[in-house]
Amino acid sequence: MLLIPCPWCGLRDEAEFRCGGESHIARPDPATADDATWAAYLFDRDNARGVGFERWLHRHGCGRWFNLARDTVTHEIRAVYGMTEAKPEFEPRPAPSRGIAPEAAP
């Protein structure tokens, strides 16, 4: 279980929150967007290995939305910031070792 730091309530258990999916997705203009643009907006997500940016709702607490930068491999929470703030930049980290010696790797 994750412990998530709500910007307003402090550190709380993951069960108090609801993940709202990937953050920083720009909604297309309904007047000019074609079907392919709408499909990409609705269904295409990064799902990157490493730091991902998500929206979270503190539903059993203050009821406020915020953004969270979380490493999808280790689940380490790297940053918590407001909905209107720009996403932070992070230096890439090396992949964790799996205990395989380089000469033994396929």
Report on this model:
- The chain is mainly beta and 106 residues long.
- It is 8% helix and 30% strand.
- It contains one helix and six strands, in the order βββαβββ.
- It has one helix spanning 35-43; strands at 3-6, 10-13, 18-22, 51-57, 65-71, 77-81.
- It has a four-stranded antiparallel β-sheet, with no helix packed on it.
- A hairpin with a 3-residue loop joins strand 1 (3-6) and strand 2 (10-13).
- It is globular and about 45 Å long.
Keywords:
mainly beta, 4-stranded antiparallel sheet, 1 helix, 6 strands, 106 residues
- Net shape: globular
Q: Into which percentage range does the β-strand content fall? A: 25-35%
User: Mean of the pLDDT scores?
Assistant: 89
List low-confidence stretches: none
Kindly report the spatial arrangement of strands forming the biggest sheet.
3-4-5-6
SSE string: EEEHEEE
Helical stretch count? 1
Kindly provide the radius of gyration, computed on alpha-carbon positions and rounded to a whole number of angstroms: 17 Å
Helix content: under 10%
Tell me briefly what this model is:
Helix content is 8%, strand content 30%.
Task: Write the SSE topology.
Layout: E1 3-6, E2 10-13, E3 18-22, H1 35-43, E4 51-57, E5 65-71, E6 77-81
Antiparallel strand pairs: 1-2, 3-4, 4-5, 5-6
